[in-house]
Amino acid sequence: MEYIAEAALRSLTLAVLVRLGIAGLRITSAQQEKIVWTTLLAGALTMPLLVRWPLLPSIPIATFSGPTMAISGSGLRGATLASVNAVYIAYLSISSLLLLRMLSGAARMLRMRARAQRIREPWTLGLDVRVARELAGPATFGATILLPPGYVSWPEAKRCMILRHEAAHVRHHDSQIQWVAGLHLCLFWFSPLAWWLRARLAKLAEFASDDDVLRQNACSVDYAAVLLEEAQTGAARPMLVGITTNASHTLAQRVDRILSTIEPAQPPSRSRRALAVLSVLPFVALAAAGVGQQRPVGLSQQSLPQLPTSEPFITTSPSEEELQKFYPERARAQGIDGLVQITVTLDEDGRATDTFILSETPTGLGFGAAASELAHQFRYANPTAGPATLTFKIKFALDHGQGKDAEEPRPCCAWQAP
């Protein structure tokens, strides 16, 4: 869960930068932009692994260990020490439901394709075109083009335009990209990027397929009429892409693009496609490496002879009254103690620039967040004259005395040996 949360945040930040880059470079080709977002989708899906094992080497930062700090607070008599990790349960439950829905939809579509009757006519151009009785409009599933039974009444011009549109989906692997986007959504459903990215890729797939039809000298007015006509046949099914799969606001954008006087963008060349991929991959690696550099690299001073031998340390801590605010209220109400091991990243002047929770016991009660906030309240000295990290433990302890008149202790800091 820790790596997934880190990966989601890094991917979201990266997507914002990519969005700004697309706007700055004025990329107008839907196919070119789709390649960029598909590359980012692949990076976002593998980001947890890249965070765990970054492609780029970590910057050597001296890592030191500090003492254990004990934070005390008044407890409740007879409180239970058991807790339930609601965050993990909620994440796994929702992810499992989304994944089950996705697999169920894929199974239904596989059965539909298996039952569909293959069309072997010259106008199919050798493509895998089948008739599915369950469909009201044309769609694409993988490399198979599915047509409704009513296709026999279509005029030849309409049939030709629809076939070209669906063939473009097959050629661009749009169905497979939507499957990957759906898997990314199952894992990162809590991130707005997962929902936006899937919708954006679906929209760009339709734009690119529309451009492909118009480049083949199709009448824009006739094609817009076909689009509007087929959009009224019914709602699209999950796991499918096709001419009728977009929402009404996207349909209006597509009609505006089709009827505009602007010429459809030419398909990107191989060099442009490679450039689109290569322009995103280094930033994916940098985003993952940025997380990895926050972790202690485990280097001793003997392995970093160029650094001074003196170690960073905590100079001052908050007052006892201020420490009282950092004990998680939920844990206090349940009478639960906690222990957090935290790493604080310091700049050369001893300022805390970042924190990373190495361990939190128990989880789900706010001890990690409290320790991270508390760590920024300390003042540090960093004699190393360079970036360094200081690792220490923060112990949250309650007074579990049973006496009615037991004195409630005030918060305090206790320095212990590492």
Oligomer state equals single chain
Question: What is the helical fraction, as a range of percent?
Answer: 40-55%
* Tertiary shape: elongated
Indicate the structural class. alpha+beta
Compact overview of the structure:
Helix content is about 45%, strand content about 15%. With about 425 residues, the protein is α+β, with helices and mostly antiparallel strands. A 5-stranded mixed β-sheet has the order 8-7-10-1-11, covered by helices on one side. It has a 4-stranded mixed β-sheet with strand order 2-3-5-4, sandwiched between helices. The protein has a two-stranded antiparallel ribbon with strand order 6-9.
Could you characterize the architecture of this molecule?
It is a single chain. By secondary structure, this protein is α+β, with helices and mostly antiparallel strands. The chain has a domain at 62-84 and 299-416: TolA/TonB C-terminal domain. It is built from 13 helices and 11 strands. It has helices at residues 2-25, 30-45, 47-52, 86-115, 156-172, 174-187, 192-214, 220-231, 248-259, 270-292, 320-323, 329-334, 367-375, and strands spanning 62-74, 117-118, 128-131, 139-141, 144-147, 313-316, 338-346, 352-361, 379-381, 388-399, 415-416. The chain has a 5-stranded mixed sheet, covered by helices on one side. A 4-stranded mixed sheet has the order 2-3-5-4, sandwiched between helices. Helix 4 (86-115) runs antiparallel to helix 6. The longest helix has 30 residues, at 86-115. The relative contact order is 0.18. Residues 59-66, 69-84, 291-309 and 402-418 have low confidence and may be disordered.
